[in-house]
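#help-structures

NK: newbie question. if I give both the sequence and a SMILES, will the prediction place the ligand too? trying with adenosine-5'-triphosphate
OV: yes, paste both and it writes out the complex. here, I ran yours:
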Amino acid sequence: MQIVGVTTQHEVYIASKVHKFRMNEMLVIEDESLYQPKGEVVETFSYNRYIPMGFDKGIADDQVLKTLEQIGYDIGADDIHLAKVRLFEEAVQPIQTGATVRHPHFNEISSLLVKTTPAEGLVLGEVKSTDFIEPTLPESLKELMHVQDHDEIRPQKGIPFIFDIRAMQQYPHIGVFGGSGSGKSFGLRVMLEEIMKLQIPSLVFDPHFEMNFASQADDLPSAKTYTDRYSVVQIGKEVGVDFSALSTRDVERLLSAAGSLTESMINVIQTVHKRKDSYQSFSDRIANLAEAIELGKQKVEAMLHDGGMTRDEINRFSTFRKLLDQYGSLPLASIKGIQWRVNRLHQAGLFQQNIRAIEQGIQAGKLVVIQGAVWLLQVFSSYVIGALYGKRRSFRDAKLQQKQGDFFPPFIVVTDEAHNFAPKGFDAPAKSVLKEIAQEGRKYGVFLIFATQRPTLLDETITAQLNSKFVFRTVRGTDIQTIKEETDLTHDEGKRLPYLRSGDVFVSSAIMGRTMAVRIRLAHSASPHALNPFDELKKMKEQDSEQVLRALDAYLPLAEMSIMNQLTNLNKEAQKNWDVAEWKQELERLSEDGLLKKQKTPFATLYTRP
Ligand SMILES: Nc1ncnc2c1ncn2[C@@H]1O[C@H](COP(=O)(O)OP(=O)(O)OP(=O)(O)O)[C@@H](O)[C@H]1O
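OV: that's the protein plus ligand as structure tokens.
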């Protein structure tokens, strides 16, 4: 391999007759006077006698052609491989044309690529095109993972990409961007596995119900299990909001998530909500007030003067009167609006539990996955993040003031669909607390991992605070533009974004100091959605046929006209509720699928085992 053409201080062309260059391949230029500059391939081209140079010059210019001829290439006849290489550090003077080029030894580039050990960092994947370095890779960095390359699963060959999570203290927060099917969720899963490995307490909001680590990945030798390292809770089942602990401002925020609030509705909440109100006391007060206003003061007074009512009725109407005296001037429509919103949250189970299960999980160093519908997660996240961040802050602040405080650990907040939690341009329940963490969380040891398909829709103050960005395949022009503005991806890398393979990612991180191309490793666990929906249909059909055949077994051979007599038994055993026509259809289907044999005689149609 040799340098050809005119070189600059930061870019050179390299040619070879035998070596086919690969994108992101690392190379060392033998130039003692410049301290062996190193760089990586950013563009490649191959010529052979079928596509001779000059016919389509591609990346080569006249200067390149001239040098090639001078150093003995037969242009138009030889195979020639060319690469454009960008130097990692600008050279003090242009590089000598003709200088030889080779692959680096691990020690020559280790400081650029490896910032921590596998035991202390997140082992997320393999740095692309580094398999040339395998012979010099130290044992401690080998055999850390398996990688899927095209259809083949293979052990790690190149340099591992180990994210130095400890450096988040200085460069906090991670963004994970990528379009549908780009491998973003898969990458997030690998990140979470590594976080569990290190037992870092984390709060994961999971709108897709996919972050479960119970099932192991198929085909992966020695997949790790994470059983004791995480817990999954659902809003309305294991966790919820303790209504009586909410301030009036919290109630406003929660209710606004169930449906936007008008000024007048906010006024209703501020007037009617009392400190320590339980869900019951607040919703009763609202319901009674609505009913009282609907009846009107006159009618309520008349009922109370009328007499002849039971004690309960007297109590009820006295309550109405009191409420009318206190709040009678509030508009009925706004009160009803609040009533509807409180009801909606209650129906979703939000007020049935508290967040103790989450706090315990975090205290125990676990990854706590919180599942629920997006809108409900938005409400709940604002409450739970606010509460836990508050605890962590109080503990740290107390410590700074040398006071005693209950220990609360540092933790990470992880969410997919992050643009729903902190949207650009409009408000969302959790946005203010997330912004605060983006700006101040570092001081308290609270960090964000934000994944989204739409970085353009994410609040820009937060995007700017994400010091490490993992960029998967992105097709949408506006998102590519945002990514280019927010990372140090070069123009060439930006152009490659729509064509990245699922699982390939550019990591642009202040921690690494430069963009790296990485193949994410195979996950040890599998997503519950990993089953192809069409395989799922097939499996369901097979299971169903099996069940029906088992029920039929005792009655075979079965004549079509006997179905009527056996209908109750058949339905019971097959757990169906079919009539005779439906059973006939099913028998026909099973015989078409070859699972039964259909015989027609002049007297009857018979079904038997094939
Ligand atoms: N690193 C990887 N190695 C092997 N296969 C991968 C890798 N990453 C992704 N894949 C494959 O690509 C598919 C799509 O990935 P994934 O579901 O993570 O996409 P996504 O970007 O999260 O899409 P969506 O946002 O629609 O969920 C996965 O089913 C997985 O099989």
